[in-house]
Amino acid sequence: MGLLEFNKLPINTLVGADWKTFNQITKGRDIDPAYRGKYRLTKAVCRLLSTLTSLQESRYKKLLADKPLEHDPVFILGHWRSGTTFMHNVFSCDKHFGYNTTYQTVFPHLMMWGQPFFKKNMSWLMPDKRPTDNMELAVDLPQEEEFALSNMMPYTYYNFWFLPKYMQEYADKYLLFNDITDEELKVFEETFVKLIKISLWNTHGTQFLSKNPPHTGRVKELVKMFPNAKFIYLMRNPYTVFESTRSFFTNTIQPLKLEDISNEELQANILSVYAKLYHKYEADKKYIPEGNLIEVKFEDYEKNAFDLTKEIYEKLSIPGFAEAEADIKAYVDKKKGYKKNKYQYKPETVKLVEEHWSFALEDWGYKL
Questions:
Q1: Of 83, 125, 140, 328, which residue is least crowded by CB atoms under 10 Å?
Q2: What is the pLDDT of residue 131?
């Protein structure tokens, strides 16, 4: 049990941003009065830690900047709460994979210098379970990379956690890349490659394993960056996804936000962004070369994770299953008794999903 409760954090994750990124994200944005203390403390800690970023930059340039990637990444895609975390944890049992860690999401600039000290303190302070679904939390566990990217550049969708009034703007520009400029896209590409190289260096992997829901809207760009990347797309019952996402976003945003948003506004944004993300993926998946994409229903994967993992390795020609087989089986067997949150669908939930997400229900064949 960590010293701090997640929903009572006195600062937010922008403490790990470099000073330039912090200022670019917050410039011209209103900070609501209730969060100005959190903003000032976050800003002060960020300013202090930012003095150390040059140490990592120097090591990165010396050790990794000119080193090519051995393999293109494997991307686990899907809307939030579609089971991507479970699949990420299963695949990360394979030691040839490298990944972004929970520590790295908060302190991406303190990876190649000072990590043991800062990681020890983060481990001491942070809670040991996610408040929304009781999944375990630990500094070295695999984590989605969007939070790390949001501390390395201002062009990410996760700016909405801090500034939720601009959620739709961030979605159109940095989730779907519809309104992103060429200059911003170039920064995204360079920053993401840098994150991958540092992640592989940190976890001693040779192929990057990505679990990042926002990448679901960036398939066209990711294929351009990594022509032989492999993609796994997870589908899940939209009724469950809606209930779970609403709970996850409503709880997670509380310690991170610097301005208020009503539950009604947040719900409307969830409904809208789901549709945008779904249609963007469907439009862009044609750019993935044949043999490099597999689509899986999470309900099927959850029932038979070991056999389906083996099948995914084979269909996507991912190396390493034989070597990782025992570790994957051990993890899957350990999780068989895991108790998930159960959702009772209220009539208003059913109505909202059927009004706004009927396309997913029909395309994927989900019914109550």
A1: 125
A2: 54
